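Researcher: Hi, I'm a grad student and pretty new to this. My advisor asked me to get structures for two proteins we've been looking at. I'm not sure of the right format, so I'll just paste the first sequence and hope you can take it from there.
Model: That works fine. Here's the first sequence with its structure tokens right after it:
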Amino acid sequence: MNKAPSFGHSGFLMESPAALQQSASRRGPALVAGLLWLAAGLSAGYWVLQFMGRSSVTPVVTVATAPATPDPMAVARTLGALPVAAAGSAPVAAAPARYVLLGVVATGTDGGAALIAVDSQPPRPYRVGASLEGGLVLQAVTRRTVRLGPSLDAPSSMELSLPEKAATPS
């Protein structure tokens, strides 16, 4: 015996508790089936995207580049060398020395570099152990001096010092 649904005074459909339980028991399997179909669709979409997104492996060709060479003029400016035009305005000594020390970078006891001008040429950076023109080798670098000699292990034959800074008027 089917009974017509009754509406409450608020206008909502009112069903008996037995009818609610029967409709809930029908929704359970439908909900589980819907979730399973959703999972299957998402899984299929994931694998389709995986296969479509793959391309053949292409090896990348790299071009070997030469190592960067330092710019001697930039190193000279960093170590405090004056530009060539400004150096020409300085008074010329009667007997210029062959080697002029313009800057040092001392690192520990065995390392370092020096900025040395040879025969009035533009200054070049030299590391400890590097050969200079004239057969000398840079043996050691200290805070304000460098030692030069015929080889790295031989006694020093020459010591160069940084020129004293001229006092600037305040």
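Researcher: Oh nice, that was easy. Here's the second one.
Model: And its structure:
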Amino acid sequence: MSEKPLVAAEVELTVPFHDVDMLEIAWHGHFSRYFEIARCALLDKIDYGYMTMRRTGYVWPIIELHQRFVKPARFGQRIRVLAELTEYEYRMKIKYRVCDSETGAVLVKGHTLQVAVDARSGEMCYASPAVFLDKLGVNFEEPTQ
């Protein structure tokens, strides 16, 4: 992943039986859920999980999801899902990498884009709200003259 992440989190999962097809290969649609599990771990790491977001008056819908499949994940396989926050000023871009836990082989790469929306008005914010930036420990205050 080219951009330096501000924060990252990793989870380990086992591909369950109910996620696979007749060939015992994980169905591609389930990787969105695996991304979500890692994304929740990342947001919890900065104390800005979905319930906290809602309490602070913002929701962050996903506006883009990209996945590139490299190798299949199979029933019973242990996988690691890495989530890295790489953009935060105007949107939240989180990059993902799903790897085999044992070999480190990359199975899937992807990213999601999320934007802040004022929960009361339903209006999209054109910059990330201060509460999110505070959770990240960054400050964009204008210098006084």
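Researcher: Is there anything I should tell my advisor about the second?
Model: You could mention this: The beta strands are 7-14, 58-59, 62-69, 78-87, 92-100, 106-114, 117-118.
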